[in-house]
Amino acid sequence: MPVGIFRVCLVVLTAIVNHPLIFPRENGTVPENMEEIIQKMKEREETLRLEQLRLEQEIAEQEALQKALEKSAEVVKESKEEKVRWDMWTALSMVIFLLIELWRQDFQEGIWQDTGGEEDDMAVLGKAFKGVAFPDKAVLASFYEKRILGTTGDMARMREMVEGFADDLLEALRSVCNRDADMEVEDCMGVGSMYENWRVRKPFVCDLIVPFAPPEPYCFRSQTWCSGDSFPPDEQGYGTIKVCRADEDVTGCICDKTKLGEDMLCLLHSQANTTRPNSEMEDLLCFKNTQYLDADQVMKWFQIAVTKAWNRISHKYEFDLSFSLLDSPGALKIKFRSGKSIAFNLTPVVQYENSDVYFISHFPRSSLAADLPSSTHWFLTFAVYERRFIQLVSKTLPANACHVSCLQILSFLHGKQCSLTGPSGLTNYHLKTVMLHLLQARPSQDWAPEKLEARLQDMLKFLEKCLHEKKLYHFFIGNGKVPAELGFPIIFQRAEPLNLFRPFVLHRDVYRKTVDTFHEMLRNMTALINEYAVHIPLAQTNGIHKESF
């Protein structure tokens, strides 16, 4: 115990003795730069504090940026999901819309095709036609017998006379032409209302087409609007004709034996070597600086050739021959010494491949038809197939079928109305197209002669429907139901349907005039028919009844 106390006391004493403030050493001094050190330590501390604040601020900014990026990613993700949902709905809506549109078009195009033999299936006309008086069967029969048949009895003799003279004229034309340089003219063919036996309006005019071909070694290569290349809507129904050498391919190389790749050039038969002088192509009736057949050049050539041919054979005939229209290649008129005259059209055409479709140089124009895109665009005519279709269907119809009678009556009424109120956008070709559609849609027994009244109403209803919708489709183009017996080219059957009433959309004034003329024709129909249906007993004339179409 005493030893421990002693040790503690010794330690305390040692600490006291060694404390610098109590017993300072001789050389012990307080550093003079202590304040400077303290000041630097404070500055260091301040620097560290500022650095800490900067780091904290940067961390805060990084956290805010991270949150913003995460939020942006969420928004992008949500927008993508929303866009995907919207795209799905848009695609689904478009599919539904297209299906509805296709169904609507099919329904509009086929509503008359899908009908059976029921007369009630035709849609009721608009309000403007309610209460229209319609003659009964007896009045129609009397009108047709006295007005239509009474004026068409001489058509057969006129056709025979015109065809005989046209053959003689074309034979003379061949004799005056240079067989090595001029176009080769073939035999003519009769088309149109005079040869389909439904022409009713005077003067009677025969329409003859004359196919022609280039001299050897040249040939025609045609291209239509439905051959694959895109054509503007106003050029549908047209085509171009290129004059080529028979041994020349489409690309211009006449070497069939050399098999070249798409990126190879034939140096033997280059484009420069196959290019012919302009004078040579103009002799082949091509448009200037091109190889495309020019309709205006063809018209001038044909008129000169016909004039030379007539000068050679005029001494054989006791009548005069002249051109009735100078802007048509072969609008001819025969003038007899008695003062009577006969008009006929002799129109040059080019055959489309090996079919009976023809490119026609000049086509009768109407107020509805648009101008030709250029003189190198040729209109296609299906008149030969139309005549064959009528002949083919007529074999399956009852005796004395009323299809031609309906067309004749409708053509007469429309022509009479136009003579009173002026021309409209409707033509006889539109009326014939309506008949062709109904011939295909209606069963054969529906065209019995006693059903003339019902079928005439059908034609008027169908025509009114087409006018209302501004849609009347060409009978052959886009029609997959054309009888195979006709041998009709498949390329036109697979083409998009051609709307003959499309110009009505662009020319609203013509459309309004056409509709007004149609309405007026319906209102005047009974009066026009009764004007010519004379000598009918009163009991029968009272058969005119009011009927809402």
Automatic annotation (TrEMBL):
<comment type="function">
    <text>Enhances Ca(2+)-mediated inhibition of inositol 1,4,5-triphosphate receptor (ITPR) Ca(2+) release.</text>
</comment>
<feature type="signal peptide">
    <location>
        <begin position="1"/>
        <end position="24"/>
    </location>
</feature>
<keyword id="KW-0812">Transmembrane</keyword>
<keyword id="KW-0472">Membrane</keyword>
<keyword id="KW-0325">Glycoprotein</keyword>
<dbReference type="InterPro" id="IPR024810">
    <property type="entry name" value="MAB21L/cGLR"/>
</dbReference>
<keyword id="KW-0732">Signal</keyword>
<protein>
    <recommendedName>
        <fullName>Inositol 1,4,5-trisphosphate receptor-interacting protein</fullName>
    </recommendedName>
</protein>
<dbReference type="GO" id="GO:0004860">
    <property type="term" value="F:protein kinase inhibitor activity"/>
</dbReference>
<dbReference type="GO" id="GO:0005640">
    <property type="term" value="C:nuclear outer membrane"/>
</dbReference>
<keyword id="KW-1133">Transmembrane helix</keyword>
<keyword id="KW-0175">Coiled coil</keyword>
<keyword id="KW-1003">Cell membrane</keyword>
<feature type="coiled-coil region">
    <location>
        <begin position="38"/>
        <end position="82"/>
    </location>
</feature>
<comment type="similarity">
    <text>Belongs to the ITPRIP family.</text>
</comment>
<keyword id="KW-0539">Nucleus</keyword>
<dbReference type="GO" id="GO:0005886">
    <property type="term" value="C:plasma membrane"/>
</dbReference>
<dbReference type="InterPro" id="IPR026250">
    <property type="entry name" value="ITPRIP-like"/>
</dbReference>
<feature type="domain" description="Mab-21-like HhH/H2TH-like">
    <location>
        <begin position="404"/>
        <end position="477"/>
    </location>
</feature>
<dbReference type="Pfam" id="PF20266">
    <property type="entry name" value="Mab-21_C"/>
</dbReference>
<dbReference type="InterPro" id="IPR046906">
    <property type="entry name" value="Mab-21_HhH/H2TH-like"/>
</dbReference>
